[in-house]
């Protein structure tokens, strides 16, 4: 029988990759979102305010699936509000889908803030030593990821379905209007530098420039999510998810610069956040979009300066361990440089950046 999936957040960077992957593997895919993004062709979309119990119930009242994938979040002003809003989103969906999910599966995507702490307290506590491993557990701080997990665990126990939690590092993937999208942000930044002659300056910390790190291709995460939903060895487990290679930004920055035909500026160890330096970028991007007939002239629909600054400005090394997934049978690998280049090529093909 054809497998059936519900993707919550189907038009985001994770949801887009997961939709494309499941459709290629002959799943029937229903998507649920707030209706702000462009869904993948072939996905049966439902629209609702995910924080509204009644709207979610109305949107999903006739949906019957084998697996639910959570790939959505709503950024709030404080972590207390993040907990209230994002926890409710998980409960609202599972309260509706739970009865039909008996003997099915629900997968929740969170991330490495599980170990680093939320943005309000990012890396300020006693961060576990790298590489991060699943058994290191939770930090003693408020974190909406923990609330989402607890809502998932409670619903799984109540309705009788299995669960998995997936913790990717920074995700590389195609999506527009996404709140956390370093790949598209760097593509836009490099394009601005190329067209204006500005130096391609690394905005982050010396620790990130010199230390080892890893990332997660959204396509690899999609494969990981399907694996967890269909493998007996992955049931009721939490997993880190990374590409499988490591690199230093001092190398990757020059590789990205080479791709765009620009020169990487020497790094002097000083933090130069993009959010503060790109104040005039909206006007510049609109001119570039007009010149090259690009699809999206509004830079705010492409970049997330703040999120890229947060990731590249970390004061600690961030590397994840994938042993748990490997031992359970997930052996996929993705070159991070190739992930960036594949994304840049798609952005050109879709006329999001100049070709």
TrEMBL record:
PRISE-like Rossmann-fold domain: residues covered: 60-354
Any single Pfam family the record assigns to this protein: PRISE
InterPro entries: NAD(P)-bd_dom_sf (IPR036291), PRISE-like_Rossmann-fold (IPR055222)
Family matches, as Gene3D superfamilies: NAD(P)-binding Rossmann-like Domain (3.40.50.720)
PANTHER family assigned: 3-OXO-DELTA(4,5)-STEROID 5-BETA-REDUCTASE
Protein name as catalogued: Nucleoside-diphosphate-sugar epimerase
UniProt source species: Caballeronia sordidicola
């Amino acid at each position: 029988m054809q497998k059936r999936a519900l993707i919550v957040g189907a038009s985001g960077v994770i949801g887009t990759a997961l939709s494309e992957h499941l459709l290629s593997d002959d799943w029937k895919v229903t998507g649920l979102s707030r209706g702000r993004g462009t869904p993948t062709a072939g996905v049966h979309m439902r629209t609702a305010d995910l924080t509204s119990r009644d709207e979610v119930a109305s949107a999903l009242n006739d949906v019957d699936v084998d697996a639910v994938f959570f790939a959505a979040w709503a950024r709030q002003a404080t972590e207390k509000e993040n907990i209230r809003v994002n926890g409710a989103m998980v409960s609202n969906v599972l309260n509706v889908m739970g009865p039909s999910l008996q003997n099915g599966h629900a997968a929740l995507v969170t991330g490495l803030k599980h170990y680093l702490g939320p943005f309000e307290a990012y890396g300020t506590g006693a961060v576990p030593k790298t590489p991060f491993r699943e058994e290191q557990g939770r930090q003693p701080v408020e974190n909406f990821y923990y609330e989402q997990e607890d809502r998932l665990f409670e619903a799984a126990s109540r309705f009788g379905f299995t669960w998995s939690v997936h913790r990717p590092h920074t995700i590389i993937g195609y999506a527009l209007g996404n709140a956390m999208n370093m790949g598209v942000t760097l593509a836009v930044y490099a394009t601005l530098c190329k067209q204006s002659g500005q130096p391609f300056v690394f905005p982050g910390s010396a620790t990130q420039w010199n230390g080892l790190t890893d990332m997660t291709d959204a396509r690899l995460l999609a494969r990981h999510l399907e694996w967890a939903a269909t493998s007996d060895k992955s049931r009721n487990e939490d997993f880190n998810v990374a590409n499988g290679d490591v690199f230093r930004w001092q190398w990757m920055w020059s590789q990205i610069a080479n791709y765009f035909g620009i020169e990487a500026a020497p790094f002097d160890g000083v933090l130069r956040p993009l959010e503060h330096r790109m104040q005039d970028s909206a006007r510049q991007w609109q001119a570039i979009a007009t010149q090259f007939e690009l699809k999206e002239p509004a830079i705010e629909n492409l970049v997330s300066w703040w999120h890229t600054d947060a990731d590249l400005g970390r004061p600690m090394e961030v590397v994840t361990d994938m042993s748990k997934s490997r031992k359970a049978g997930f052996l996929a690998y993705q070159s991070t440089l190739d992930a960036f280049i594949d994304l840049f090529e798609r952005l050109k093909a879709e006329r999001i950046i100049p070709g």
